Every structure is written in C-alpha cells, then in structure tokens.
Amino acid sequence: MAAIGGLRRLCSIGLSAVSQNSGLKALRLCQYRAFGVNGALRQQPFDSPTEKPQFPGASADFVDHLEFIQPNVISGIPVYRVMDRQGQIINPSEDPQIPKEEVLNFYQKMTLLNTMDRILYESQRQGRISFYMTNYGEEGTHIGSAAALDPNDIVFGQYREAGVLMYRGFPLDLFMAQCYANADDLGKGRQMPVHYGSKDLNFVTISSPLATQIPQAAGAAYALKRENVNRAVICYFGEGAASEGDAHAGFNFAATLECPIIFFCRNNGYAISTPTNEQYRGDGIAARGPGYGMMSIRVDGNDVFAVYNATKEARRRAIAENQPFLIEAMTYRIGHHSTSDDSSAYRSVDEVNYWDKQDHPISRLRHYMTARGWWGEEEERAWRKQSRKLVMEAFERAERRLKPRPELLFSDVYQEIPSNLEKQKESLWRHLQQYKEHYPLDVYDK
Amino acid sequence: MAAVARFLVRASGSSKASITNVSNGVHSKVGVSLLRVSSGFNPHAKTQKRHAAHFTFQAEPAQTKYGPTQKMNLFQSVTSALDNTLASDPTAVIFGEDVAFGGVFRCTVGLRDKYGKDRVFNTPLCEQGIVGFGIGVAVAGATAIAEIQFADYIYPAFDQIVNEAAKYRYRSGNLFDCGNLTIRAPWGCVGHGSLYHSQSPEAFFAHCPGIKVVILYRAAVDQVPVEAYHIPLSEAEVLQEGSDVTMVAWGTQVHVIKEVAAMAQEKLGVSCEVIDLQTILPWDTETICKSVVKTGRLLISHEAPVTGGFAAEISSTVQEECFLNLEAPISRVCGYDTPFPHIFEPFYIPDKWKCFDAVKRMINY
C-alpha cells in the first residue's frame, strides 16, 4: 500500500481522486503511468536547432547556450536632432522647411508662455494665486508637437503642457481665469491652478493623479479609430509618471487594441526631487516601447524641429496603420517642480544654469531665426514689451473678476443634481442667510 | 440554478438613467453587474456535503407591460441588455477580460459574432487599464461597457473610478464627462468563493460622489421583456407591503428577507414590508423613510461587513428623519468584520435565521 501511495503522489499530485488503497484505483494509476511512459517513447527525437519552438506566447528560435539578454543602458537609443545648439540645421534632408510665418509663430508662442510663466510664478510668490507650475525649458516640446498635430486631434496631458493650449489659441484670459478660479473659468473654479481644459480646442481637462490619462487616451484613440475620421490622440506625461501602473496599462492596451495614439514622454530628468536613476534602470522610457510592440523614438526636446518632425511622422503613421507611437523627448526641468518646491534642495544651481543658458529651446530657435535674418534685437525688444503687456492686461482683468457663484459647488457632480445634493445646497443657502458675515461672500458672484 | 443578483456602479450620470435592458446612456454609468452562480445547489448531489443555498428563488409574476417576454436567467438577461444596447447604439463597445468568447459567466455569448470584433473584444489582463480605457472611450463620445471579471478585482481600478470617472464632469466644469461608461462586475457570495470571489464592495463606492451604484436581483429564471425597457435609478421597490417591520436589502439578500418575511408572518404573526433598495448611490431615502414612518421598525441586511457598510448610512439617515416614529433601535444584520471565509461561509452570511432572530428581538423590544 505504501508503494501505491507513493505512486499516486508521483503521478497525480493535485488531482482530487484520493487513493484509499482500492485495487481499482491502483490499476488506474498504473495505466496512467504506463501511458505516460508510452507518450515519452513516442516523442520525436529532439534533433537539431532548425526545429522551431511551438509556444503560443512568442515567435522565436531555440538557442543551445545559456545567455541572459543584457540591457543596453550605456549606449542607449540615440537622440534625434535637427538643429544644433546654435540653431544650425545639421542634416538638410531633415529640415522640415517650415515657412517663416509659422516659425515666428512657434517662437512667439514659446516666449508668450515663458512670459506668462514668469508673471504667474511671481503672482503666486505674492500670494495672489494659490499655486503654479512653470514650463521653463520644455516650451519646445509643447510647441513642436502641437504644431505637428491636427487641431481636431485630442490631447490628454499631465500638467506641464500649457504650451499645447497656447499653440492652439487658448486665450490668455482663460489661462488666468483658471489660475484665479474666477467666474470666467470654464472649470467653474473647482480645480487647482494649471488644471486647464478646453472642449473647443480638444484639450481634455487636466487632473492631478499622475498617469491616469494614459489608458484613457488609449480608449479615446480606440473610439476615434472606430469613427474613422482621421483623428489621432496625443498623450503627454513625464518620465516619473511613466512608473505608474497606468502607464503600463495604457501602452499595452494601445498596442494590443491597435490605437492611433502618440505617447509623448517629457523626460526632464526629475520627478519633483527624484532623479531618473531612482526612477528607472533601463534606457529611459523610449526603450520600453519595443517591449510593448510599439514604434519608438527619442528626440532632443530642446529642438523644436526634431520634436515637430517626430510628431508629424508618428501622427501620419498612427492614423494610417492604427498603431501607437512612443516619443521620448529629452529635456531638462529648468524651473522648480512647482511653487511648493525649492529645487536647490536637491540639485545644483550650476546644473540648472547650464540648461538655462547653454541649451534652451527658446534660444536655440532664436539662433535659427537670427541666422536667417527673420529676427533681430529690435523685434525681440518689441515682442518682449508687447507680450508682457498682453499678459499683464489679462492678469489684471482676471484679478478684478469675482469668483463663481457658491452654488456651483453642487452642480456637475452628476449631470442632474440628485435630491440629496439639492437638500445640501438648500441647507448651505439657509446657513449662509444666518451666518453670512463669517464667509467671504463679497468676492463671489451673486 | 444560476444567476441571482446584479450590481451596478455608475458615474456622474443623470439620475433618470436606466439600468435594465438598455443603456443608450448619455450618462455616466460605472455599472457593476453582479452575477451569482451557485454550483452547490444540485438537490441530487448526495456525496458532496456542501452547504445548501441560503435562500430560495421566487419568480415574479410575469409582467406584460413591456411587451413580449421570454424566460431568462440573470446572465441571459444581461446578454439581452447588452444586445439591445449594441443594436441601438452604433458607438457602443463591450470589453474586458475574456468577454470575446462569451465571458466566464457567459454574459456576452454570441455578441462578438453578431456585432463584430471591434465592438466586443478582449483586453489585456489589467483592471486599471480596463476602466481607464473605458473612461477614454466615453470621453471621446462613444458608449463604453466595461466588465470586471469579479467585483473582488475592481480595486486595482479604484483610482480610475474614484479619482477619474466620478470626478470627470465636475472638475472640468462639464466640458468633459464619461457619462457613457458602465462597468459591470459579478458580485456577492457564491457558496465557495472565499476571499476573492465573494465580495460586496458597494460601500467603498457609496462614499464617492459622482458615481452611481446599482444592484439588481432576479430569480434564477424569470420572464424578461425581449425589447428594451428601463427601470429608473435611485428608486427602491416595495416588493411586499407590511405594517410591523420594514426590511431593506439588495441583491441576493432580497431573496433572504422575502423568506424571512414569510417566516415572521407564519411563526410570529408579524407583517413585514420588504424593500429592494436597487440603487445604492444616490439612494431612495423617501421610499425607505415613508415605510419606516408606517411600520416604526427597520431591519437592514447586507452580505458585506457591518462596519462602514451601507446599512450604517441608511440607519443613520432614517434615525435622523424618522426619530419620532421609531419604536425600536434600527437593526443591522450583516456580514461580520472579517474577510469572507471559505469553509465558514454558512456561519458568515447574514442568513434567514439571523434576520428572523433580529425581527423577533425588534418586535419584543
């Protein structure tokens, strides 16, 4: 009996048929064993390396020596560049030949964003708005990619892509209205500053949770594919956000469900204080793309033309072939993470200065324009003055405006206000009647 | 024997939206449709001493107000609802893990063949991806019906549901919404599902403004209208009128309290009013409070653990609204504050004897 028990353990571990020493069971177990042996004898001899593996999970050849695949992080995916730091086109065949007017537009949008950043950053320092995040050093990634899109393409962003809205013509007044959360804010003053959104400009409202937009963007791209209207989706995120589970979800879904989407990663070296060597150990984000079966490229994010070219081609192919593309734009976060952060606590001023002074997307484009005689000191002075005036005027208008009506706290939770919320709204109203002097009602719309 | 209960969670949609055989929704529906399959109910099985069903199905009288009906169990009626939706809404898509071949609970059988693989498709195995993807589909204006294979596995998508789906409309000032999203998921105990095939997570979602949580039940086999029809959300249904005690439940537990009502009548001469809450959020306070004003006593029962369970919300609200009418403390008969156990399920669930005892104590208070 001990032998049968041993046999049973050998042959049918995990099977529920239990062996209480019945002769019938022993017989069956022996048959099972015999069958196993016959099966092994009938197997074709394993003859040569020419035989193909038949596993459903991958298409590959056998290999007869043990070798782990090594990541290539020393010599990573190269950084695509169109012009050098002096604004010189390196390879004429890659020159996008963008007409003068449009190049001037690029420059003006980048610098207008920069001017707005400076003024709003200062206004936060003075306590006039509660929070702000600048775009210093990443203006080229916004403008270059936005210019390569169709205005109907849907944009999902993280929070450091205000230049995309700027390029699409979002009025300064609405940027300010959102940051001030005044009565003109399309978002009805409900979100923190820089959480912009515009239905008309197909820019999906920003939310704070990182990377949540990535699988959402894949879903939106799938819906656009079914509509068959030649629209694509672009989804921006930082290299830190790419560590979230949602990034993995979004990349994998976009690939398996064949979505016309461009994943645009702004790799600026830091996620708040965390440098990239604490964020990942592979070759950045671009190297992950092929792992998902995704066409991928790395570009110089301070080269607006490189960004433009890559985005343009990715968009063309994403729509034509219904497949996702990954662009990793290498750049540097020149500003603090936000107004609640002092980046000198974790990185050197020299490091920041290098990027600000030696390799900035705005100065690079200016070199390019100057070399062509499209821009000079005079134009620069006049535009600085004008852009500052535009921003200051919008700023002052926004500051004077009242906040939205307090009852807007209750709408849009659902499409219709449910009865429990109606009651809560009435209860607040009654409360305010009695205690109005304790609330800042004078700064809110009536 | 098959399907019993159905649980839906929906996001920032209109309160008038419907749940049953159609979702031509222009509204956010994070629907979690829960299916109970009980393999331990075979009366002829002698060898296996698995605990018998803790409830009995009672088919409703056939309704004809919605046109011709057909006998369907719960999973067939879910398929029928999905079928009606795909037929009437060309943008609608169904996706999740293993839905293409018909689903592990057979809720999507035949739909891929009928409507095409671009409309009924498998996703990678990733719940946060499924819900995030569904939100995106809905944001782009199409109708997304996502499936989470078990309610127990909805937590990886908690962030997408709570921080994203629920807040999309509000945070954007109504510029964007994901009102066309429904999430369905099988829900509740099944007899042997243990920790991760038995959960009733509705209370986690009930604390989240912006979504709707719905649980419907149906007898094993019932007459179901073939054509699309609507059951309004946020409306409880009084299944049986009574005068002494109000009993509130949802999902399978409705079967339990229906039986308890019969026992209370027979053994104690107590008349129970039986209410199926149906929508957890936003819930129908009016129907419940009206009933308690009449009966003066309230028993709430759910499978989920008692602490922080949705019965606490109902109890507290009724106490506030009906203080002068209450003749006994409100009674909550719920799961214990433990994970859902495997071999101890018969002792864990708030079965009819536990509910019956609570009725007895309330009457004698």
UniProtKB/TrEMBL annotation, chain A:
InterPro entries (alphabetical): Alpha-ketoacid_DH_E1_comp (IPR050771), DH_E1 (IPR001017), THDP-binding (IPR029061)
EC annotation from Swiss-Prot or TrEMBL: 1.2.4.4
Molecular function, one GO term: metal ion binding
Cofactor(s) required, per the database record: thiamine diphosphate
Gene Ontology CC annotations of this record: mitochondrial matrix
Top-level division of the source organism's lineage: Eukaryota
Catalytic function, reaction form: N(6)-[(R)-lipoyl]-L-lysyl-[protein] + 3-methyl-2-oxobutanoate + H(+) = N(6)-[(R)-S(8)-2-methylpropanoyldihydrolipoyl]-L-lysyl-[protein] + CO2
UniProt cross-references to Pfam families, sorted A to Z: E1_dh
Compartment(s) of residence: Mitochondrion matrix
Key words, A-Z: Metal-binding, Mitochondrion, Oxidoreductase, Potassium, Thiamine pyrophosphate, Transit peptide
GO biological process, one term: branched-chain amino acid catabolic process
Segments forming domain Dehydrogenase E1 component: 108-406
PANTHER family documented for this protein: 2-OXOISOVALERATE DEHYDROGENASE SUBUNIT ALPHA, MITOCHONDRIAL
Function statement: Together with BCKDHB forms the heterotetrameric E1 subunit of the mitochondrial branched-chain alpha-ketoacid dehydrogenase (BCKD) complex. The BCKD complex catalyzes the multi-step oxidative decarboxylation of alpha-ketoacids derived from the branched-chain amino-acids valine, leucine and isoleucine producing CO2 and acyl-CoA which is subsequently utilized to produce energy. The E1 subunit catalyzes the first step with the decarboxylation of the alpha-ketoacid forming an enzyme-product intermediate.
Assembly, per entry: Heterotetramer of 2 alpha/BCKDHA and 2 beta chains/BCKDHB that forms the branched-chain alpha-keto acid decarboxylase (E1) component of the BCKD complex. The branched-chain alpha-ketoacid dehydrogenase is a large complex composed of three major building blocks E1, E2 and E3. It is organized around E2, a 24-meric cubic core composed of DBT, to which are associated 6 to 12 copies of E1, and approximately 6 copies of the dehydrogenase E3, a DLD dimer. Interacts with PPM1K.
Similarity comment text for this entry: Belongs to the BCKDHA family.
Protein name per Swiss-Prot or TrEMBL: 2-oxoisovalerate dehydrogenase subunit alpha
Lineage of the species this protein comes from: Eukaryota, Metazoa, Chordata, Craniata, Vertebrata
Automatic annotation (TrEMBL), chain B:
Matches recorded under InterPro entries: THDP-binding, Transketo_C/PFOR_II, Transketolase-like_Pyr-bd, Transketolase_C
Pfam families: Transket_pyr, Transketolase_C
EC number: 1.2.4.4
Matching CDD domains: TPP_PYR_E1-PDHc-beta_like (cd07036)
Main location: mitochondrion
Record carries keyword Secreted: no
Coiled coil, from the record: none
Keyword Acetylation: no
Cofactor annotation: thiamine diphosphate
GO biological process annotation, one example: response to nutrient
Quaternary structure, from the entry: Heterotetramer of 2 alpha/BCKDHA and 2 beta chains/BCKDHB that forms the branched-chain alpha-keto acid decarboxylase (E1) component of the BCKD complex. The branched-chain alpha-ketoacid dehydrogenase is a large complex composed of three major building blocks E1, E2 and E3. It is organized around E2, a 24-meric cubic core composed of DBT, to which are associated 6 to 12 copies of E1, and approximately 6 copies of the dehydrogenase E3, a DLD dimer.
Function per UniProt: Together with BCKDHA forms the heterotetrameric E1 subunit of the mitochondrial branched-chain alpha-ketoacid dehydrogenase (BCKD) complex. The BCKD complex catalyzes the multi-step oxidative decarboxylation of alpha-ketoacids derived from the branched-chain amino-acids valine, leucine and isoleucine producing CO2 and acyl-CoA which is subsequently utilized to produce energy. The E1 subunit catalyzes the first step with the decarboxylation of the alpha-ketoacid forming an enzyme-product intermediate.
The protein, known as: 2-oxoisovalerate dehydrogenase subunit beta, mitochondrial
Gene source species: Albula goreensis
